[in-house]
Amino acid sequence: MPLAVRQRPRAVLWSAAGVVTLGFLIALEITARRYGLPGPMVHQAQEVIVAPKSGFLLYASMALMMVVLDWRQRWIAVGAAVGIDAVFLLVRWAVGADLNGGHPFGNGALWVILGVAVLAVTRRTGRERLLLLKGVGLGLLLVTGRKTGDTWLLITSETRVTVLDQYLANADHALGNPSWLVGRMVRATGPVGAQLLDYVYAQLAVAAVFVALYQLRNVAVERRFPGHHIVRTFLVIGLLGPGIYMIFPVVGPIFAFGADGGHWALANLWPDTPPSIATPHAMPFDEITPRNCMPSLHTAWATAIFIHSRKGPRALRLAGTFWLIATLTATLGFGYHYGVDLVAGVVFAYTIEAAMRMIDRGWDRSGIQLVAYGTTVFAALLLCYRYASLEMATYPWLFGPLLILAMASVVYGYLRTTRTWEPEAAAAQRPSSQPELTAVP
Fold first, then answer.
1. pLDDT tens profile 280-314
2. What angle do CA 150, 307, 179 make, to 5 degrees?
3. What is the spatial distance between Cα 182 and Cα 437, in angstroms, rounded to a whole number?
């Protein structure tokens, strides 16, 4: 089959995905405006001038964009970004402009990304233009994904007036209330441990960029992107996850059972005293705190970093393992999540990763079964948390091992299935042709 014919379905698929994504962003922008909130596209456009919320993320996005440039062009891009940021800094200092909680740098990186887009449209043609635009799109998708997530969180707090934390607090008894245990451990480490974990938690996207840069290191030479890389999984996790927030709104133990919840909290128990087992009810909460616990997307993203770092050098593998462990510790130790959130987050990540790999290699029976199984387990977890939380708390010796077994079965299924997709395994399974022995008369 000719290459052009084989690539046509994939081109149609990605064109459709682009249209759907644009429609989703426009719909989110309109929805945010209805609640008097800034939408993701307008918010991102403002950072061309105003102090960005995360300068680190903008420079990480520029680094992703630069995978399509040669080394000379990269040095020019970095120099231009730093120079533009220096000008912005001097102007803000001269006019006494307030940063409003933003970073004093990052505008230059965004200007460079947009400048490369203009260069691609006006000075390049054919495949070279397409490659540059893909790099720009990769960088902008990362920051747009962050803005989209922020907008989703604001919408959840405005539209979900009640939360289901009592259900998860019950379900968490099956795991031994890990948020309360790890919360006391983190508090015992003092400010140094808390600051380290806070940095890891806040810069998760930057960590993903380091893995992406390794995976995309040959783009500038080969003039094409690999079929699958971490950015795709990262973005899909961020796109689908907030939809679950709307179905299963939860604020987290430090808000529902801790001091940060103020008078909305059921009690001030976290992290010293786990809540007692009781019949759960949906409870009202404020219109400020995001309902962003179920599933734990930080866990899902850290899991994606861990998965994609496995094929890198030893230093990258160690970094991926550290980021996963530190993220899990932070999500529990800061009281942002219950243990059952993390279990759901791991299942969510492996299922999406399997689906993204299938899109690249083509759907077959084993891949469809894997994605269907992961989806089923994830749905079963949500149903158990919602309708069997009291039983989970009453019989932790039964439901605790079942939760871990369900999560482990998805991980094992992923490893067993994807191992057969590797080139080495495929070559080993392919029957080799043996020369026939011919008798000599």
1. 999 999 988 999 999 999 999 999 999 999 989 99
2. 60
3. 68
